[in-house]
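hi! just following up on the protien thing from before. the input was this:
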Amino acid sequence: MNLATKYLGLQLAHPIVASASPLSATLDGMRQLEDAGAAAVVMASLYEEQIRAEDTAYALYTMSPETVGKFHTHLLPVTLPFVLYGIFRYLYLLYRREMGGNPSDLLLNDRALLVNTVLWMIALLVIIYGPEWVPAWIVR
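and the predicted 3d structure came back as:
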């Protein structure tokens, strides 16, 4: 009997697919699933809600009194557009361009995400350390 099927665009020898689990979190675990007969393995992923929650957490962090006191600046919320762009760019690549997979590889191979990340880091450095770099006569 031929059980070959197609799942999410993949041609599989049979329809047995292992779901996301602790075994699918490591390469050794995935090899065990393959040895046990799984035709494919579903890996755990980030959901859009989790990503948006992280953005909200970052926004609250930049405005919290503890953060303002630690970095001696009220300007950290200026970095929010970089974070928002990064999140929405990632979601665009994930859902529209179907470029899921390792987020680190996506960051390193997508020029827009990489430039955005570098600009975010520069903005942070200027906001946090800028007053120390600027001559005193300019700050007055």
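The mean pLDDT is 81.
DSSP finds seven helices and four strands in the chain.
cheers
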